Amino acid sequence: MQRTEEIASKALNAVDNDRYKLALLVAKRAEALAEGDAPLVKLDNAKMKFTDIALREIAEGKIALEGLVESNK
Description:
The chain is an all-alpha fold. Helix content is 60%, strand content 0%. Helix 1 packs across helix 3 and helix 2 crosses helix 3. It catalyses: RNA(n) + a ribonucleoside 5'-triphosphate = RNA(n+1) + diphosphate.
């Protein structure tokens, strides 16, 4: 399992090193997961917080800010 710092670094690279965009994306995706959306990564999700799952999804390129903003309109 990767360290949290490695995952956060990959996720930050996925949003062009914009910490604000990363925070927004993690918050929106974690909210969607809390409301019942299925995780897009295969992990032991029962032991992970929604924010950790969202961060991993972003790091793996499963979630992008453009798609999330468009789906909420």
